[in-house]
Design a protein that fits this description.
heterodimer, A: mainly alpha, two-stranded antiparallel sheet, 13 helices, 3% strand, B: alpha/beta, Rossmann fold, Coagulation Factor XIII, Chain A, domain 1, 2 domains, 6-stranded mixed beta sheet
């Protein structure tokens, strides 16, 4: 939509000292470097402007800070929710899937820790994607009145999810001690899958954020989609439940690789390479697709929202 | 310094109407569309217009602003003023044309954008400042000035939801007022706060204007435009109608608005609303029912509008309002059936008349325009802006044969003036303070 061309200054001529040559005082009056913007209609696909995103980093920070602050301002339990919710889910899953459903037999080691560990990346994905999908509509007043790269909205909306992940991760470590699950060096690799989850979320989040603006029914589809998605992901059950020959198909759901990878590194188990590679590939495709689709529809946001 | 601040060449913006009027659609519509008309849907999905039912909000706009100029954009509602500002602020994209800008732009399209009621005044200053484009360091530097200008020192750490509306508006404007870009784009944000604050705001804006900043200013208040702008641009129906020195353009604009009002009501096509009622003509009379050419200040005034009905459904509880504006396009009076609980119960199929009666007209002598609007259940049935003009002559409002001079006010108001000698007034004061 616009380009920025900064007019550059000619280099200043240094003052010559008397000892060397005849003093030549050359002072070029400082010309203010004016920002030069061109606005014209552009069609076609556009790349993500990372430089611009970096320039607006402070605003992105403020939006994240605002969301986190608001969330806890009026709640009694505040940050405790980040721990209570997954704990409750863990209890429910352990009873229904673990004992009654018999899933605990497919899992080596402690089922509650297994479930909790799976819930971490899953909850991050689920809440962040939902927030990102709604971020443009929730901030419609900003979209209509102020300029900033719209991409910072879905990305900033993930802030709360990431904070919750951090808090829950600490709880997870506590649980691992409580259930006597040993710590392995591979635990240090688990942040890789955290990053993978974040990237998956960015991809789907931006795609959905744009889709929701253009096709309003996606708003209602979103919550429903996320619910089904959970059952299609190895949160309550291990990947091994799915037969080898269907593993690659199953891993087309990127959360399969991320969740199983996160859990494996945490527990010191062997990675399921099929899942991880297929999921990572799908994640990268959707990351690119989401960002590009968002950029393409971005120019119409203010006209529609 | 470059030789221009903003250069606009051939700017145009069009929106598509019809089925995709709101711009968004549902998946069902798109899929259904694919089946019935695959090519058309494919083209519109990729963002290219299909040329049916499009509406040009702006067309063929060319102008240039030199650095340091203060330019006002005027025009009736819907002329495209806000659209130009949105394009210059890069909020929406032009359909054709080109804009070149030298310098940083600060856009004030709204005051208090992003203000969150749960956050404190201090927090909102930083948040809003960042949204407007100020860096955190810049906000910190100007923090004390911003707080002082808004006069909210004591309430900095209270959530904004506890602020009175006046306070939050002052705070919002204060942050905006300290935005310091080379080019400032302002959209009618001056109509905020009480008179004292408004003067402060105008003062601050003039200060910015005099400091050599370039300002593009959209407003309906001709008084403000004349006070601050060196030149003006007149937009009409999305086109550049005229531009030049402020007083000339404002005069031409006001004259054309009055001229529009001269047209007989029934020939007016620029109406809004469903059209089930149409105002056909207007007549003026005095208290005795006699037809008059002009009203008199202090005398009974009656304005009758004739309308015809063209409705399939029965219209109930119709509310008719009359907005009166003076020569400076300021709204001075609103006469409204809802205000006096006189909405029409049921509209007859043959139409009828509606008469607004003011027992003692307080308007001072001058030329006034009125806008008439009929609404049913919040829906506009007919609305004609600047439907007509009437003149008010000097009259005997006070019974003394005297009226305030020209420019000494908009209204005559009934009042009394009492004098008291000193001893009596001190006694009166002590009884006052005792009570």
């Amino acid at each position: 939509m616009s380009e920025e061309i900064v007019t550059s200054l000619p280099p200043a001529v240094p003052l010559a000292t008397a000892a060397e040559v005849e003093p030549i005082v050359a002072r070029i009056p400082s010309v203010p470097r004016l920002k030069h913007t061109i606005i014209e209609p552009r069609s076609g696909w556009r790349m993500v402007d990372f430089r611009e995103l970096w320039r607006y980093r402070e605003l992105m920070g403020y939006l994240i800070w605002r969301d986190v602050k608001i969330r806890y301002k009026q709640t009694v339990l505040g940050a405790m929710w980040a721990i209570i919710q997954p704990l409750l889910m863990m209890a429910v899953f352990t009873i229904f899937f673990g004992r009654l459903g018999g899933m605990s037999h497919s899992v080596k080691g402690s089922y509650p820790v297994f479930v909790f560990a799976g819930l971490l990346p899953w909850t991050l994905f689920a809440t962040a994607v939902t927030q990102a999908g709604q971020s443009l509509m929730a901030n419609a007043n900003l979209v209509n009145k102020v300029y900033f790269p719209r991409l910072i909205l879905p990305i900033a909306s993930m802030g709360n999810g990431i904070v919750d992940f951090g808090v829950s991760f600490l709880m997870l470590l506590v649980l691992m001690v409580w259930y006597g699950v040993g710590f392995h060096a591979s635990l240090l690799l688990s942040p890789i899958f955290f990053v993978g989850t974040v990237l998956t979320t960015v991809g789907f989040g931006t795609l959905l954020a744009a889709l929701v603006i253009v096709y309003r029914d996606f708003r209602y589809v979103l919550a429903f989609l996320v619910q089904i998605w959970m059952f299609a992901s190895p949160v309550a059950y291990p990947v091994s439940v799915v037969a080898e020959r269907y593993r690659a198909l199953y891993a087309l759901n990127p959360m399969v690789g991320m969740i199983s990878g996160f859990r494996s590194t945490l527990m010191g188990e062997e990675l399921d390479w099929t899942s991880v590679t297929v999921s990572t590939a799908v994640m990268l495709i959707f990351l690119a697709a989401g960002l590009l689709y968002f950029r393409k529809t971005e120019r119409r946001f203010a006209d529609i929202v | 310094m470059s030789d221009f601040a903003i250069r606009v060449e051939g700017l145009g913006k069009h929106y598509q109407l019809g089925a995709r009027e709101s711009g968004y659609t549902t998946l069902r519509e798109t899929l259904a569309g694919f089946i019935t008309n695959p090519l058309k849907r494919f083209k519109s999905l990729s963002g290219r217009s299909t040329e049916d039912e499009s509406f040009w909000a702006l067309r063929d706009i060319w102008f240039e602003l030199k650095p340091g100029e203060v330019v006002g954009i005027i025009g009736h509602n819907g002329a495209g003023k806000s659209t130009i500002l949105k394009i210059l602020s890069q909020i929406t994209e032009p359909t054709e044309g080109r804009v070149e800008i030298m310098g940083r732009i600060g856009s004030l399209l709204e005051v208090g954008t992003g203000f969150h009621p749960e956050l404190t005044g201090r927090e909102n200053i930083f948040l809003n400042g960042s949204i407007l484009g100020m860096s955190r360091a810049e906000v910190r530097r100007k923090f004390d000035e911003i707080v002082a200008f808004a006069e909210v020192e004591k309430f900095l750490d209270t959530p904004v939801k506890r602020y009175s509306s006046g306070m939050s508006v002052r705070l919002a404007f204060s942050v905006a007022a300290h935005l310091d870009p080379e080019i400032l784009i302002v959209d009618e944000v001056l109509a905020v706060g009480d008179q004292a604050f408004q003067n402060k705001c105008l003062g601050k804006m003039s200060g910015v204007a005099q400091s050599g900043r370039t300002i593009l200013f959209v407003s309906h208040q001709m008084a403000a435009v004349e006070a601050m702008c060196t030149s003006a641009i007149w937009l009409s129906e999305g086109r550049l109608r005229d531009s030049g020195p402020t007083s000339t353009i404002v005069e031409r604009y006001l004259r054309s608005v009055s001229r529009g009002a001269m047209q007989p009501l029934q020939d007016r096509h620029d109406r809004q609303g469903t059209g089930e009622i149409r105002f056909k003509s207007v007549s003026f009379s005095n208290g005795s029912g006699e037809s008059v050419m002009n009203f008199q200040c202090g005398a009974p005034a009656a304005l009758t509008l004739q309308f015809e009905t063209q409705s399939q459904r029965t219209l109930r509880n119709m509310r008719v309002s009359l907005g009166v504006e003076n020569e400076l396009a300021q709204r001075v009076l609103l006469l409204d059936s809802r205000l006096v609980r006189s909405d029409l119960n049921q509209v007859e199929p043959d139409g009828g008349t509606v008469t607004f009666v003011v027992p003692k007209l307080p308007l001072l002598p001058g030329c006034y325009r009125f806008t008439v609007q009929a609404m049913v259940n919040g829906e506009i049935i007919d609305c004609v802006r600047n439907a007509g003009v009437f003149y008010v002559e000097g009259g005997n409002f006070f019974g003394t044969g005297q009226l305030p001079a020209q420019g000494e006010g908009l209204f005559a108001a009934e009042h009394e003036v009492h004098f008291q000698p000193r001893a009596a007034s001190e006694a009166a004061e002590s009884t006052l303070s005792a009570s």
